[in-house]
Amino acid sequence: MNRRGAKPLLASLSGISVVSAAAVPQALSTVLDTRPASEFKASHFPEAINIPERSKSESWVGTFIEPKDGFYLVVDTKEHGQVQLEKLAKIGYEQFVKGIVLYGDFAGQPSTAFDQATFDRAQEQYFIVDVRTAEEAKTGPVFKGAHNIPLAELKAHIAELPVDKPIVVHCASGYRSAIASSLISEWAPKAQVWDIGEHIKSYKQSVN
């Protein structure tokens, strides 16, 4: 992003307040949830995007978050919020944060849990999306008939995803699939989405 004209970092950070989860106008707001995928799946804002904190996670934020209207930043502690703001500042996004939300015990909605036993009994009944890169998918296929849509290209292919067949998303370790499943749930709210998550490790072992 072109940062010309952006506020100095300290001024940007000092102007961001901590707001309660109940105060976020959910229907009108973009919500970026940076908590671990396990916490997000247990409870989150409807249509929130989950990009868990890790090294260079801000690059995925820049890929998927449109900053023009601002967004709320969901974290688990104030310290985590400060770390996230500093990471967002690397791409010039700290100035678009409307407020930091400490999620706490807010009663949000859970994600549909991946039912491995049900999936294993009839994998052909699912639309399997592999969000690894094309090279990863080519050299290390995991599921027969999986559709390779790299995470960075997901938005361009969202219309290709079915709404009459459950979607199962996987990557190499569970990080990219966590992001992808939250994006699909936001962009295609009628779709049924399961994130294989870290369960993918057992499938990769069986293939190898």
TrEMBL record:
Pfam families: Rhodanese. Keywords: Signal. Coiled coil: none annotated. It comes from the Bacteria. Residues 1-21 form the signal peptide. SMART domains: RHOD. It comes from Sphingobacterium multivorum. SUPFAM superfamilies: Rhodanese/Cell cycle control phosphatase. The lineage of its organism: Bacteria, Pseudomonadati, Bacteroidota, Sphingobacteriia, Sphingobacteriales. PANTHER family: FAD-DEPENDENT OXIDOREDUCTASE (PTHR43031), PYRIDINE NUCLEOTIDE-DISULPHIDE OXIDOREDUCTASE (PTHR43031:SF1). Residues 30-112, 122-180 form the Rhodanese domain. This is Molybdopterin biosynthesis protein MoeB.
